[in-house]
Fold this protein.
Amino acid sequence: MAIVKGFQQITGSLQNATFYTIQGSDQVYVRMKGGPSKRMIKTSPQFEKVRRNNEEWKGCTLMARTIRDSFCPLKGVEDYPVIGTLNALAKQIQLMDTEVVHGQRGLYLSKSKDLLAGFNLSRKQVLESVLRVPFTAVIHREEGTAQVTIPSINTGMYLYNFRKLPYFRIIMVFSSVSDVDFSAEGKKYEPIYLDQYIFQDHFETEWLSTSGVVPSLTRTLKMPDDVTDLPDGVTLVLSVGIEFGKVGTDGNPISVKYAGCGKVVQVR
């Protein structure tokens, strides 16, 4: 991948080159077209390893999408290409499967939870630098609950309003993520556990003023009552974030995209 310098901003194709931008960067990148044909990659023996890698990459992208869905209500605070970073994280998880042949290795987040814990949804600002109070966030797996406690916030001292906006709100998301495995029957990657174990519970405060003192807050999120005997292959993920807002055309607060931050605070 090359980086374009010294030109006015260009995107699109020009002869054998494609110019494009990436979220979170003000540079223009260029990729050259060409290489082996799709038919060669699909049938030629010399591309057997490539075919195996391509098949496994499908598992990585599936796991990455599944993880991203676990904090879906916080997508508005993402200020960089989160899905690309999650794809790379999923590949790390996949490489830990040393028991299955290359081309069908599974992705067992349940065995690599530490890789996801502390994952930042934003890079320009991180949660601890914006919400400067020592909040607690705990998952009780046996009970199927998650609890977040945030002490009183003196916004003048303990809230970094980096965009100088009049409102903010706190968002909490509690979700389940299934391990992903290669299905010999379906000949594709699929979540091991489907709808009966997949849930999401989230809470967001009302819009709060970025001036003054905000009272302490404790909130308990929980999985549905009909979800019981949670399998080991299902991981529980708790994420917390802050969105900042402005006054909308109707006079009510609305969120400002990328004006916030978020983090995966616990994985169990």
